Amino acid sequence: MRVQRQLALADEAASEALAAELSLYARPGDLILLSGDLGAGKTHFARAMIRAIANEETLDVPSPTFTLRQDYETARFPIAHFDFYRLGGAAEADELDIDGALAGGMALIEWPERAEALLSGWPATLTLHFDFGDSGGRTVSVTGRGSWAERLERRETVQTFLSDCGHGGNRRTFLQGDASPRRYERLFPASGGSVILMDSPEAPDPGLAGGPSYSRIARLAESVRPFIAMARGLREAGLHAPAIHDSDARAGLILLDDLGDGRIVDAGGPVAERYEAAIDALAHLHSKDMREAADNYRLPLYALETMLAEVSLACEWYLPWRHGHPAVTKIAEELQAAFRLVLEPVLHPADNKSWTLRDYHSPNIIWIENATGIDRVGIIDFQDALIGPAAYDVASLCMDARVDVSETLEARLLERYCTARGPRFDEEAFRRDYAAMAAQRNSKIIGIFARLALRDGKTRYLAHQPRIAGYLSRALAHPHMKPVRSWYEKHLPEALDARKVLK
User: Fold this and answer.
1) For residue 79, how far is the Cα from the chain centroid?
2) How far apart are CA 120 and CA 106, in angstroms?
């Protein structure tokens, strides 16, 4: 696929603005080629793009004309800036290790025509050719190939949406998201303040060989419609979800409240007061007689088969990552049978149903310092919500996958939750459910983190595996979890030992 656009750049500021905008769509593995005559603006554009990705307006970005390669470490990904003007040919370029730069970062190359044969065929390529224009300006031909062709078309869709919403001229900055394909920006209106753009085009997953895909089985949202409905529903329930300012559900674009950058963790780990407020917010939600619909959106049921499909990720991805070979069918079936035994009692009671947000943990909870009570707990990830056990989100928070929650703090949070639910609350049944949900969720997560490493090349998530091993061991200590613990001890004992999980 190939998309080409001709743009006019009136001055250097226009070139910088284009670089900043395109930087919002940049990803690791991108090859960006800058061509044009001497003085046409290649280095100026490269400097602006590197600064935008690094989010440092004054970052020193010298021309690599003599060094040939200049490297930058940024919070998003590494950038290698090349200049091939002095090269004698493709053989010399090969010594600069372009493939290594692209393995986990972005390569930005000036004068790419000096080694054209070496650069052809890369799957994500953005080419910009600069020419001198009238009255001192420039014209640039922008060509996207592979995924960059899709991104250039998406850029135009976003531009139209923002213009229609009255935000077309706003300054925009990249906002780090999660492991999903969703993309986020922070916009700064001239009137002050900021709003968040969620860019999440519809992505139906057809599955393989005509069968249902994992996303369908796991009931993952394939459009922004559930997010819009749940945001309104949660706000009506008294929780602090972001307000929706504008949206185009068909295009997968939403403008929403910016809840800020406050977190419930700090450099030392979980902040107990903030986790307590987050557990209070769950108790508030679970104490309500929730309808199975939010803003006319009917939440799917968190069914047994969905939960079993999720735990299967431990066999499908964790076991191959850990042992280098796929799980045999019999082992996978044994895991499902063990979980079926412990999950069926949890999923049957009709009075144990609530809105299960599914990712209620530190990355998705914003701490709002100037608010009070549970209004201090901003919730930002809930599009995959289902009707399911109340214990699931409690386990998600108390065994936070991204930060170490001590057994002492976990016990304190569980006690606080049970007390908040009132004297008629069945604490014994809840603690059984909690153990089952914690084991189910952490079994799913070890598979997801292994999948991110093996399939997507996102190896940084492996650093969390020892923590998940500790959580799994805690959850499986409950007597109700004996069948699942027996399976792990037989087939994946290292998944229960934080000291061995990465060895």
Assistant:
1) 21
2) 16
The whole-model pTM stands at 0.89
Residue 247 parent element (H or E) = strand 244-248
What gap in Å lies between CA 384 and CA 285, rounded to an integer?
A: 17
CA 191 to chain centre: 30
Q: How far apart are CA 37 and CA 459, in angstroms?
A: 40
Q: How many helices (H) and strands (E) does the chain have?
A: 18, 20
Residue 472 identity (one-letter amino acid): L
**Any idea what the Cα angle at residue 470 is, between residues 341 and 473, rounded to 5°?**
30
Q: What is the pLDDT of residues 432-459, one digit of tens each?
A: 999 999 999 999 999 999 999 888 888 8
CATH class of 2-147: alpha beta
Q: What's at 434, amino acid-wise?
A: Y
Q: Which two tokens stand for residue 490?
A: 């037989």
Beta bridge partners of 457: none
Phi and psi angles of residue 438, each rounded to the nearest 5 degrees, phi first: -65, -40
Domain 235-240+260-496 has CATH 3.90.1200.10: yes
Q: Where are the domains of the chain?
A: 2-147, 235-240+260-496
Beta bridge partners of 196: 186, 256
Tokens representing residue 456 in the block: 């997507």
